[in-house]
């Protein structure tokens, strides 16, 4: 009963911060990312391996020096089981913990209003929402950094020595944790030093006064020692890298971090821009690559918009704090200043004590603006302390509730297809209003009579406005920009389920080994160790002998592209075949199993004539490397499911194995045109055909009489065999726009995509099609060889129709396909 | 001295006409005074010529009229050259600098005026647009004149003093109402506010809310955000934004009087108009290349006065004058040196580039370490900040210019190559932009001549009759023109040389070989 009362009391008193935490959780769930980007797969794997003494044989694996990130994930794996969600639980907890630390730090520095505002701002901070559900160092680093500073502040305010020591210890622990998450966070030590200096400034002054009282001899001697130490250090540094390198590399600063943060210029300097001599002495002055529209175009990719609202408010807040000498904002400003200018100037001496101490490393090495999350905590604190000054203590709940509820509603509206555009437009309005109100807000703070009276209203409005503006999608730091990766995850999950349901063959871990293992909840047994795969203990294998004996599955990205070898033909596809994220599953079987599988697949295909069975027949014939069976299967698909015919992929195989077949019949259509003097051919109304000699070869030239927007066809009537693969060999040059091959009277798919093209130089195309399984052996078919429009014309130097006759030429290993009897 | 500084910095970056809009303005201006009577039988004489002149002028875009009229007469008197072409922008920039000084001095004091004029002299966008032949800077100068005249009128009780400001604003509205409407609205609002009409306040507030409500019209938010997005990309904002923020905070902290009210309402109306009317502004032809930056530049003068006011209130007038004198004199000497060198010396390029980051740092150092009663330390902070701002501006403008100068240099090389050819070559140019540039470089001596010595005749190439270019002639086409319009060049065109200073475009010079069969 008592505990219930305490809980109720706790909820009643802290309902606002609880609502903000719920909002933070909602937004992070709503814009869930997961393990999808790249490095996070490795971290998840290290977490999985941690309690098993691994990962084996992987001393030099990238990211293995970040146990502060993957050990907590490993502990969570142990507690809740290994899944993608649990893998992202640690950054999510870290994100909420950062919110808590911001709340507490702001409380310590400026009171409850600032604490609530700070917590709200972090709850809606777009970059944290984005990073909070990814197993990457950024969110945990922000948490460890803010934890260290919070503990330090508590230590400074503790009266008892024991408490002081405990909090210093906790602060040190957080600091150590942050190093273990990302070693390059080391400069946070300077922040700690800065805050300690600030906290102990009176004592430092006392100490200086004490030093002044020391005998002069001692002082001079001490000064000489310090000077000597500085000179020796400088000499050491300069002996490694003479000063021109310092200057040459310094010139690149301020083109990286600061413009990215303030105006959103993304990644202006690539390492490739610097050329091979970027670390050389006495090289020429670096000039950023010319941008023809440098005034308006982001130098690389789109503009970084994720800080649009926050930077403007921060500049006003920082200006206000400095002008008003508001000491409560000094600590976060020192914190931000040190880290910001470290990021700006720090990459220049990126590693202390190393021989490359003066080598500047541009922003590319910070990879992306993800790193800004680190400095966003103090930025949010400065903003919170500023906004809190304009809010009414007693009426703080109203803007907070308005902020929380409006953000939730807007997020839902933004997510709905029907209301997305409308919601987005009004979110842009909120952005503009937020910027305008932020800029005029100092007038309300300073004002006494006129604007000052409306101060609480103005600042109360700013809270939901900032929240709403934060929802504006800011590519690429938004879950919505990762739909490809999400597609790939869904497809890999489907592939993983399939492979778990079909445990007969091992899997080759090339390409998707690690992601597949992560999505299967580590059921396949991925490892970096050489020779570490032992099928059937693990599903993966690299053992060639085993593969030869049993066969193997492996995965490949993409489904619809050209396939030139039988071995690449997919057995199953996962996802939309037109999507680049579609996954092909390829099955390799031993020789005898291939033929048996083909027999069974063909029998099933002919018995049921369903799409699945026909597709399996096609895959089995490819696996068995039987071209005539492959063409037969393809013909059946053309007959019954023409729209689903994988002709683009199959065209590569038909060309690779069919073009050189001995029994092929090649018909020269240009000669045919000359012989028949155009009889049996038809041309669009604006077209004039003629033949001419060029380099002793006949060229069929078709000119357009006048500029036309209507497609002008070039048609020929030919007799085609049923159930047969054909290749139309074309060499052409066209200023007119052209599209190749259509069948006006039949639904026969071909490998040339329906698209308009223009080729000014001679260009070769081989267009493949397979005729349906007609009842009769052959038919007269009207073929539209090409259609053109616009102006100029088209010239054909080669125009052959090749009938692929694979029957005699494709015996593989003495096996002829006709052995099958049904 | 500040006017000399303004001039010297701009002259250091003069390097021809970079934009196709500039070439169009140059060609229009040249032809403005060389018109022929439309009707051979029409009445000769000054009046008739005047009528023809006006008729010709009215066919041109109205925002360019002042530039066309001035530049046309300059071309008539001095001939066509790069220096003459940028004179309208340059003169307007000097005038704008003077108006900023005058207005700031009227509003606050001379020190604020001097600081604001100094900032105008070095603001990268102002420098860059001042040496581009575009209508923007003259319009900005006119706007400033209207504001300055209006402030004088506000201070006097006589209604007649409002007339000059109203006249300038009215002329401006005729030239380009998108630029001058905010000024007109500002004047109207400010005047009504000062009339102290009973119950004006609620009506005014209602009107203000109504204007704000337009932001909620469909598409306005997205357009305003897009415009903001475009504007924010200007690299000089990187240092302008923090300065604006501290300027606003400081102004908020002092007691507001008439000048401050005037400045803030002026800035607010301009900013509100730019963003609320964003859907329309985005459709403006002026916006096509860099025109939108003109709207941004028009916002800058009140911002500069705001920033200058903030510095001026923190320092003694004599201190600021000494700092400006020192930095200004050094900068003038340096700029003269830069005028004489074709490009930035390597060492200076390095130092100015480093200064971009240092200037940003200095803004915060200035704020953090400025303390009352420490004159030497404070003046060092200001001196360092202004010095690095100046150096950073030079670096930023240098990069802006570097991005646009390559097509100009390609065309110059083509022209030099053609002039060096034996005989009097006939040249066909297959790209309007290149054709206009070659004619401009030839000073429009004769529309079909490459230069004043008539060493080459220049014609525009008809892409549909490229096969008919006579043997022996030369053809110049750009890579884009070849790919998109011309297609396959005739077999008898032989490549003589390719010109390319950047990966964006190549100019190809062909020689048309005489066909043996002919």
Structural summary, described in words:
Chain A is an alpha+beta fold and about 800 residues long. Helices cover about 50% and strands about 15% of the residues of chain A. In chain A, strands 4, 5, 6, 7, 8, 9, 10, 11 and 12 form a nine-stranded antiparallel sheet that branches. In chain A, strands 1-3-2 form a three-stranded antiparallel sheet. Chain B is mainly alpha-helical and about 525 residues long. Chain B is built from 22 helices and five strands. Chain B has helices at about 1-10, 20-30, 45-60, 65-80, 80-105, 110-120, 125-130, 135-155, 160-175, 175-195, 200-215, 220-230, 235-255, 260-275, 280, 290-315, 315-340, 345-370, 375-405, 405-420, 430-440, 480-485; strands at about 425-430, 455-460, 475-480, 495-500, 505-510. In chain B, helix 2 crosses helix 21 (about 430-440), helix 13 (about 235-255) crosses helix 16 (about 290-315) and helix 18 (about 345-370) crosses helix 19 (about 375-405). Classes of the chains: A alpha+beta (about 800), B mainly alpha (about 525). Chains A and B meet through helix 14, helix 15, helix 17, helix 18 and helix 21 of A and helix 12, helix 13, helix 14, helix 18 and helix 19 of B.
Keywords, separated by commas or semicolons:
heterodimer, A: 822 residues, alpha+beta, 3-stranded antiparallel β-sheet, elongated, B: 518 residues, mainly alpha, 5-stranded mixed β-sheet, 22 helices
Question: How do the strands and helices of this protein lay out in sequence?
Answer:
The complex is a heterodimer of chains A (822) and B (518).
Chain A: H1 2-13, H2 15-30, H3 39-50, H4 67-80, H5 84-87, H6 89-110, H7 112-124, H8 126-131, H9 138-157, H10 161-181, H11 188-199, H12 201-212, H13 216-240, H14 243-250, H15 257-262, H16 271-274, H17 308-324, H18 330-345, H19 373-388, H20 397-415, H21 420-446, H22 455-469, H23 483-501, H24 513-519, H25 544-550, E1 552-557, E2 572-574, E3 583-588, H26 591-608, H27 611-623, H28 627-640, H29 647-658, E4 665-668, H30 669-676, E5 681-683, E6 687-694, E7 697-704, E8 708-721, E9 725-742, E10 757-770, E11 778-790, E12 793-804
Antiparallel strand pairs in A: 1-3, 2-3, 4-12, 5-8, 6-7, 7-12, 8-11, 9-10, 9-11, 9-12
Helix pairs in contact in A: 2-7, 2-20, 3-4, 4-10, 6-7, 6-9, 6-19, 7-19, 7-20, 7-22, 9-10, 9-11, 9-19, 11-18, 17-19, 17-21, 18-19, 20-21, 20-22, 21-22, 23-24, 26-27, 27-28
Chain B: H1 2-11, H2 20-32, H3 46-58, H4 65-78, H5 82-107, H6 110-122, H7 124-130, H8 136-155, H9 162-175, H10 177-195, H11 200-213, H12 220-232, H13 237-253, H14 258-276, H15 278-281, H16 292-314, H17 317-340, H18 346-369, H19 375-404, H20 406-419, E1 426-429, H21 432-441, E2 457-460, E3 474-478, H22 479-486, E4 493-499, E5 507-512
Parallel strand pairs in B: 1-2, 1-3
Antiparallel strand pairs in B: 3-5, 4-5
């Amino acid at each position: 009963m008592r505990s219930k009362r305490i809980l109720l009391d706790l909820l009643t008193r802290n309902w606002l911060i609880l609502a903000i935490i719920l909002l933070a959780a909602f937004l992070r769930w709503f814009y869930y990312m997961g393990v999808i980007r790249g490095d996070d797969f490795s971290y998840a794997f290290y977490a999985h391996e941690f309690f098993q003494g691994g990962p084996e044989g992987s001393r030099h694996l990238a990211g293995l020096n970040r146990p502060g990130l993957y050990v907590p994930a490993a502990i969570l794996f142990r507690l809740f089981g290994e899944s993608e969600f649990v893998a992202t639980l640690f950054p999510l907890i870290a994100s909420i913990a950062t919110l808590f630390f911001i709340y507490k730090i702001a409380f310590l520095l400026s009171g409850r209003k600032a604490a609530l505002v700070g917590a709200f701002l972090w709850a809606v901070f777009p970059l944290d929402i984005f990073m909070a559900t990814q197993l990457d160092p950024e969110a945990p680093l922000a948490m460890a950094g803010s934890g260290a500073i919070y503990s330090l502040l508590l230590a400074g305010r503790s009266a008892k020595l024991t408490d002081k020591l405990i909090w210093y210890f906790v602060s040190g622990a957080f600091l150590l944790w942050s190093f273990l998450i990302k070693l390059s966070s080391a400069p946070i030590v300077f922040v700690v030093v800065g805050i300690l200096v600030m906290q102990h400034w009176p004592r430092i002054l006392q100490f200086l006064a004490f030093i002044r009282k020391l005998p002069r001899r001692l002082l001079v001697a001490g000064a000489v020692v310090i000077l000597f130490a500085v000179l020796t250090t400088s000499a050491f540094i300069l002996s490694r890298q003479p000063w021109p390198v310092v200057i040459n590399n310094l010139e690149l600063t301020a083109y990286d971090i600061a413009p990215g943060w303030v105006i959103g210029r993304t990644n202006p300097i690539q390492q490739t821009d610097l050329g091979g001599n970027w670390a050389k002495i006495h090289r020429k002055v670096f000039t950023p690559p010319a941008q023809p529209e440098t005034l308006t175009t982001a130098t690389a990719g789109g503009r970084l918009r994720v800080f649009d609202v926050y930077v403007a408010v921060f500049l006003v807040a920082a200006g206000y704090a400095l002008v008003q000498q508001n000491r409560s904002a000094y600590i976060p400003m020192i914190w931000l200043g040190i880290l910001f200018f470290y990021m700006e100037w720090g990459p220049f001496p990126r590693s202390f004590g190393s021989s490359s101490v003066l080598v500047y490393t541009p922003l590319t090495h910070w990879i992306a603006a993800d790193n800004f999350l680190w400095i966003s905590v103090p930025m949010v604190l400065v903003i919170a302390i500023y906004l809190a000054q304009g809010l009414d203590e007693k009426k703080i709940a109203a803007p907070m509730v308005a902020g929380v509820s409006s953000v939730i509603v807007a997020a839902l509206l933004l997510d709905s297809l029907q209301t997305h555009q409308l919601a987005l437009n009004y979110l842009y309005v909120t952005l503009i209003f937020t910027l305008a109100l932020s800029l005029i807000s100092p007038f309300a703070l300073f004002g006494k009579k006129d604007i000052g009276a409306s101060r609480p209203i103005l600042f109360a409005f700013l809270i939901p406005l900032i929240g709403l503006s934060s929802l504006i999608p800011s590519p690429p730091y938004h879950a919505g920009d990762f739909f490809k990766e999400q597609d790939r995850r869904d497809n890999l999950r489907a592939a993983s389920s399939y492979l778990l349901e079909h445990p007969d063959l091992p899997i080759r871990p090339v390409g998707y080994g690690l992601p597949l293992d992560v999505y299967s909840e580590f059921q396949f047994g991925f490892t970096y160790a050489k020779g570490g795969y032992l099928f059937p203990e693990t599903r993966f294998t690299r053992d060639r002998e085993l593969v030869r004996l049993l066969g193997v599955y492996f995965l490949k990205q993409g489904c619809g592209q050209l396939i030139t070898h039988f071995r690449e033909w997919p057995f199953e596809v996962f996802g939309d075949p037109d999507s680049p994220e579609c996954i092909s599953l390829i099955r390799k079987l031993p020789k005898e199993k291939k033929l048996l599988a083909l027999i069974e697949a063909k029998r099933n295909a002919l018995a049921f004539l369903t799409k699945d069975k026909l597709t399996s027949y096609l895959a089995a014939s490819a696996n068995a490397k039987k071209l005539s069976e492959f063409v037969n299967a393809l013909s059946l698909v053309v007959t019954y499911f023409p729209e689903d015919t994988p002709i683009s992929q199959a065209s590569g195989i038909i060309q690779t194995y069919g073009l050189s077949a001995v029994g092929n019949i090649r018909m020269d259509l240009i000669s045919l045109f000359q012989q028949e003097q155009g009889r049996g051919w038809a041309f669009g109304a604006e077209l004039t055909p003629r033949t001419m000699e060029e380099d002793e070869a006949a060229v069929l030239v078709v000119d357009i009489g006048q500029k036309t927007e209507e497609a002008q066809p070039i048609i020929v009537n030919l007799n085609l065999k049923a159930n047969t693969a054909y290749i139309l060999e074309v060499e052409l040059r066209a200023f007119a726009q052209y599209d190749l091959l259509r069948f006006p009277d039949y639904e026969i798919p071909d490998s040339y995509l329906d698209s308009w093209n223009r080729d000014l130089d001679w260009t070769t195309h081989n267009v493949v099609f397979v005729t349906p399984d007609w009842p009769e052996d052959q038919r007269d078919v009207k073929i539209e060889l090409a259609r053109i429009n616009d102006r100029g014309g088209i010239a054909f130097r080669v125009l052959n129709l090749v009938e692929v006759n694979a029957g005699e030429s494709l015996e593989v290993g003495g096996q002829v396909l006709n052995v099958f009897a049904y | 001295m500040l006017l000399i500084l303004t001039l010297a910095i701009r002259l250091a970056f003069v390097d021809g006409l970079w934009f196709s809009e500039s070439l169009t303005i140059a060609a229009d201006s040249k032809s403005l005074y060389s018109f022929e009577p439309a009707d051979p039988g029409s009445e000769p004489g000054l009046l008739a010529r005047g009528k023809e002149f006006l008729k010709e002028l009215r066919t041109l875009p109205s925002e360019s009229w002042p530039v066309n009229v001035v530049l046309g007469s300059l071309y008539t008197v001095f001939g066509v050259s790069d220096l003459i072409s940028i004179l309208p922008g340059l003169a307007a920039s000097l005038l704008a600098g003077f108006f900023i000084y005058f207005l700031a001095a009227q509003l606050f004091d001379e020190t604020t005026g001097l600081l604001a004029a100094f900032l105008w002299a070095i603001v990268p966008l102002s420098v860059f647009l001042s040496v581009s032949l575009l209508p923007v800077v003259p319009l900005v100068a006119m706007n400033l004149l209207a504001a300055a005249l209006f402030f004088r009128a506000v201070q006097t009780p006589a209604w007649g003093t409002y007339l000059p400001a109203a006249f300038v604003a009215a002329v401006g509205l005729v030239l380009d109402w998108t630029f001058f409407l905010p000024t007109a609205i500002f004047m109207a609002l400010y005047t009504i506010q000062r009339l102290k009409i009973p119950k004006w306040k609620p009506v005014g507030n209602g009107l203000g809310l109504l204007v704000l409500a337009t932001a909620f019209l469909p598409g306005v938010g997205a357009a305003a955000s897009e415009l903001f997005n475009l504007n924010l990309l200007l690299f000089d904002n990187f240092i302008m934004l923090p300065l604006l923020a501290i300027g606003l905070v400081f102004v908020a902290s002092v007691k507001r009087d008439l000048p401050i009210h005037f400045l803030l309402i002026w800035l607010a109306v301009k900013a509100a108009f730019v963003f609320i009317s964003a859907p329309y502004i985005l459709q403006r032809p002026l916006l096509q290349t860099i025109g939108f930056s003109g709207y941004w530049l028009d916002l800058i003068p009140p911002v500069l006065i705001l920033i200058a006011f903030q510095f001026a209130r923190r320092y003694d007038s004599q201190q600021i004058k000494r700092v400006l004198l020192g930095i200004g004199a050094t900068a003038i000497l340096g700029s003269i040196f830069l005028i004489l060198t074709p490009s930035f010396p390597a060492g200076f390029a390095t130092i100015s580039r480093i200064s971009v980051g240092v200037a940003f740092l200095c803004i915060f150092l200035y704020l953090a370490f400025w303390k009352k009663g420490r004159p030497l330390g404070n003046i060092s902070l200001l001196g360092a900040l202004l010095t690095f701002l100046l150096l950073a501006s030079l670096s930023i403008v240098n990069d802006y210019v570097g991005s646009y100068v390559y097509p100009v240099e390609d065309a110059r090389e083509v022209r030099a190559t053609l002039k060096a050819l034996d005989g009097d070559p006939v040249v066909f140019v297959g790209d309007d932009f290149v054709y206009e540039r070659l004619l401009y470089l030839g000073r429009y001596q004769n529309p079909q001549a490459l230069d004043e010595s008539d060493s080459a005749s220049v014609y525009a190439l008809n892409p549909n009759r490229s096969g008919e270019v006579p043997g022996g002639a030369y053809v110049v086409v750009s890579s884009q023109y070849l790919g998109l319009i011309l297609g396959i060049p005739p077999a008898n065109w032989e490549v003589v040389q390719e010109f390319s200073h950047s990966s964006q475009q190549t100019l190809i010079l062909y020689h048309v070989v005489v066909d043996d069969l002919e």
